[in-house]
Design brief:
Layout (H helix, E strand, L loop, with lengths): L6 H7 L4 H8 L14 E8 L2 E9 L1
Antiparallel strand pairs: 1-2
Length: 59
């Protein structure tokens, strides 16, 4: 995490959801996310008529 980043901003940036980020990283308490923490994010991409996950990003 970096200053001024929120889970909402990250979710929008990588076309995913806050719930997906929370679940993937085992975050039990949103108040316990700290600066410098690395988060794994699955980026959703559109492929014609369906949506798939094709990229793991550590942010």
């Amino acid at each position: 995490m970096q200053p001024d980043n929120t889970l909402c901003c990250l979710a929008k940036k990588f076309n995913t959801t806050i719930d997906d980020i929370v679940e993937l990283n085992g975050i039990g308490n949103l108040d316990l996310i700290y600066l410098g923490q690395k988060l794994l994010i699955l980026k959703k991409v559109c492929k014609k008529n369906n949506i798939g996950y094709n990229q793991n990003i550590i942010y």
